Amino acid sequence: MSDFRYLSQMAIGAIGLALYACTAMAGVSPEEAQRLGQNLTPQGGEVAGNKDGSIPAWTGGLTKSPDCYQGEGSRYCDPFADEKPLFTITAANAKQYEQQLSAGQLAMLRQYPDYRMNVYTTRRTVAIPDFVAEATKRNAVNARLVSDGEGIEGAAIGVPFPIPKSGVEPVWNHKLRYRGGGGRRWNNQIPVQTNGSYVITRLREDVRFEYNRAGTTPESLENVAIYFLQVTMGPPRLAGTIGLIHETMDQVKEARRVWVYNPGQRRLRRAPSVAYDNPGQGADGLRTNDQTDTFNGATDRYTWKLLGKREMYVPYNAYKVHSDEYKYSDIIGKNFINPELTRYELHRVWVVEGTVKPTTTHQYARRVFYIDEDSWQIVLVDIYDQRGELWRWQEAHAFQAYDKPFFGTPALETVYDLKSNRYLAMALNNEDEESFEQDFPVSYFDPSSVIRHASQ
């Protein structure tokens, strides 16, 4: 993509932002919403491929399980296991591809001579159930931002803003993207030191995606989008710690409800500070709370700008690094994840910039998010400090759950600290059971019973 094209898209995004500031944002017109399922995918991506065919047209996504898949509860296997990389991006040839790389990716290539990115054929695997597609089309017309963009109304089940007009809307799409009705996963977090050593924090997490459940209406949500329970299983010094979150839709109307159980105190207490740039559990200071799932929680500390779209090489279809054939020691390297296990593809992404408002604070003064147009998964984040220098860089390696169907099943998330030469790997479950869907009732996440459930 040429600089001129990208700058033109940035100008278009700025014009849209100015219009947003002058008008009350509601949904798009019914005529524009009709594009969904026609020249736009059901979630708002462009159906057509790019001019040279390196990004193919979307043809429905991956909804048929490959022969290697053993069925519900078994490990998601790689339907593209026989494919070889088209080429590899290294420090030696990075200049050739810099228009398709983020600042963080370029910094990694400069900083670590052995770092490389294997690029494969682009596979547009994203698919969602019909009821989610239908809900997304309704949301396109009815969804609206409230509380200065800190809440939404008129949306349920599908992404709220499939045809975004302002910077905060793609962020909402990421937070509320369809990932099934709920389930259990292992979210093992591995902070890696400069010498390559690490201690694993084992987190078991249960979730109910209230917003995404079939039959949900905007009125039935009662301002709660997600119920979340996290139990720390190890190491011993942290084992037994419990976190409970009720993620509210409008966090100006009501901040997220958080409780923490400390086994030493044997009490479940309300905890007002599990948000924003408070340090994340088991991360050794390498991530903030709002970096879980690349970004979560309130958006009110940032001014958001929609900068347009770019074609970029991003982590995608990460079945290989998810395989239980690999131990964590096979995946974790001294300075970065084993590059032979990761897969990069060329995809179109929305570019959204978040800049800290002058009236508030956050240790990350600016973040640039790259959001996959097909799934609304944030796939890359460039993170800048108070001096405007690139500090950290974040990736999400996800894949399509072809038997559900939905995209966003995490194989691996990383946060690289470019200044300390350390990094954090998280969302790994290679040595544990596969993530699985489970219909946890709302009562499961009631503070009065959460300690009993956590021991199960």
Strand adjacency order, main sheet? 6-18-17-16-15-14-13-12
Which architecture name does CATH use? Answer: Clam
Structural class: alpha+beta
Mean pLDDT value: 92
The main pleated sheet reads as: 8 strands, antiparallel
Helix content: 10-25%
Low-confidence parts: 1-24
CATH class: Mainly Beta
User: How many domains would you count in the coordinates?
Assistant: 1
β-sheet strand percentage: 25-35%
Distance between the termini: 52 Å
CATH H-level superfamily title:
Lipoprotein localisation LolA/LolB/LppX
Gyration radius, in Å: 21 Å
- Number of H/I helices: 7
CATH fold name: outer membrane lipoprotein receptor (LolB), chain A
Q: How do the SSEs run, as a string of H and E? A: HHEHEHEEHEEEEEEEEHEEEEEEEH
Structure description:
This protein is of the alpha+beta class. The protein has a single domain, classed as outer membrane lipoprotein receptor (LolB), chain A, CATH 2.50.20. Helix content is 14%, strand content 29%. It has seven helices and 19 strands. The protein has an eight-stranded antiparallel sheet with strand order 6-18-17-16-15-14-13-12, with helices on both faces. Strands 11-10-9-8-7-5-19 form a seven-stranded antiparallel sheet. The chain has a two-stranded antiparallel sheet with strand order 1-2. Strand 8 and strand 9 form a beta hairpin.
